Amino acid sequence: MPLSRRTILAASGTGLALVAAGGVWRVTRTPATASAPWELPAPTPSDPRLDAFRHAILAPNPHNRQPWIIRLDGTNGATIFCDLDRRLPHTDPFDRQITIGFGCFLELARIAAAERGLRIDQSWFPEGEPQPRLDGRPIAKLTFVPDPMVKPDPLFAAIPKRRSTKTLFEDRPVDPASLQRLSSVFGMTENDWFAVSADNLPATVAAVRKLVLEAVDIEMRTARTHRESVDLMRIGAREVDANPDGIALTGPGIEAMAATALLTRATLADPASSAFRQGQAMMAETYGSIPAILSVTTNGNSRGHQLFAGTLYARANLLATDLGLAMHPMSQSLQEYPEMARVFAQMQALLRPVFANGITGPIPTERGRVQMLARIGYAAPVPPSPRWPLETRLAQPL
C-alpha cells in the first residue's frame, strides 16, 4: 500500500507507529548532535573572539551551507574567508546570497562582542571586491577592541532563539506595530541608500505570493537548480548528524519513507515521482502562507551593499524573534539565473517602488536592488537548523 501525503504528514506530526506495505516502524530518532552549537554551553570561552564566533555561526545563510572560514590573527584579530566549495553556483551564480549570509555572520559576531564590552573594527574586502564570484581573498578583517563606550545590544538574547521557520504560518494578521518596528530595525525607516520595509497590504502580499509561487515552481522544474537543493538534502537523523548543513529532512514520516526507498535523492529529483510531486505541493502550500512580508533594498549591488543587506536582515530576524514572530526567507524570485529572469524582473519592479518610497532621492532602477525577501507571521515553534561546531569552521586548530 503506497504512503499517501496525508499519512506522511500525520506521521510527521504525531511520532506514532506508521504502518505501510505490511510493515510497522516505530521511528523516534532525532538528530543527536546537530543542534548542540545552539546550546552555547558553559563555560564562556576566555578568548572573546571565540565567544563572538560561536554566536556568529548561528547566523542565517543560504541553504544552511555555513561557508565561513575563520582565521584567528594574533591576540585580537581575525580574518574571514569563504569556503568556495560551499557556494551555490546554480541558484546563486554570482555569490550574492552567500555574501549576504556573511553579512548576517558579521552582525551576530558584532552583537556578541558588544556583550563583552568589545568593539569590532571591520574592514570589508580588504584586498578588493571579488567579481563576478567570490574567490580566495578575504571577506573581512576584524579587530576586537575593548571600548567603554560600547553598550550591550538588546538583540543579543535572541541569537540562540532565532529560527528560519519553514512551516505554515497561522492565518491571522500580523500586528501593525510589530511591522513598524521591523521597518525601523536600524532605528530609522528610511535612508538614502537602504530601506527595510515590512507590510501586510493585501494587494502587495497577493502580488508577491503569485511571483513567489512561480519562482518556487521554476526552481523545482529547472533540473540543475533543483538538483543543487536535492544534493544538499540530509535525509534522516543519521545524515543530519553526519553532515549538519544543507537542508535537513527529519521526522518519523521522513524516516519511514527513507526506510522503504520512497524517499531518496533520486525520487526527490525525478519530476515523475510521487516524492517530487508531494514535495512540490508542500512547498507551494508553505510558501503560499504569507500573512506579511519584509524586504531589504539597497541603493546598489556592490559586495558592500550585499554584506550590509545581511546585517539588516540578521537584525530584522532577531527582532522578529523578540516580537514573537516567525520569519522565513523566500529567495527564489531574487535569484539570477536565466530561467528566473522574468520573475526576477517582475519582483524587482513590484517591490522596489514600494520599499524605496520616501527615500531621499529614489533608488535608480539600474542600481537599486531588492536583496532579501521574507514572509512574516505567527507559527508554532520549530527546532533550530543543524550547525557544524565552531572548531570545524576555524582555519587552525584550537
Descriptive tags:
single chain; 398 residues; alpha+beta; NADH Oxidase; four-stranded antiparallel β-sheet; 12 strands; globular; disordered N terminus
What is this entry, summarized?
With 398 residues, this protein is α+β, with helices and mostly antiparallel strands. 36% of the residues lie in helices and 17% in strands.
Rg, Å, rounded: 21 Å
CATH top-level class of the domain at 163-218 and 288-377 = Alpha Beta
The main pleated sheet reads as: 4 strands, antiparallel
Helix content: 25-40%
Which structural class is indicated by helix and strand composition?
A: alpha+beta
Structural commentary:
There is one protein chain. The protein is an alpha+beta fold and 398 residues long. Among the domains are: 36-159, NADH Oxidase (3-Layer(aba) Sandwich); 163-218 and 288-377, NADH Oxidase (3-Layer(aba) Sandwich), CATH 3.40.109.10. The chain is built from twelve helices and twelve strands. It has helices at residues 5-14, 48-56, 96-114, 176-183, 202-221, 223-231, 237-242, 252-259, 265-269, 274-287, 303-322, 341-355; strands at residues 18-20, 23-25, 68-73, 77-82, 118-124, 140-146, 194-199, 233-235, 247-249, 292-299, 326-329, 368-377. It has a four-stranded antiparallel sheet, covered by helices on one side. Strands 7-10-12-11 form a four-stranded antiparallel sheet, sandwiched between helices. Strands 1-2 form a two-stranded antiparallel ribbon. The protein is globular, with a radius of gyration of 21 Å. Mean pLDDT is 88; it is low at 1-28 and 355-363.
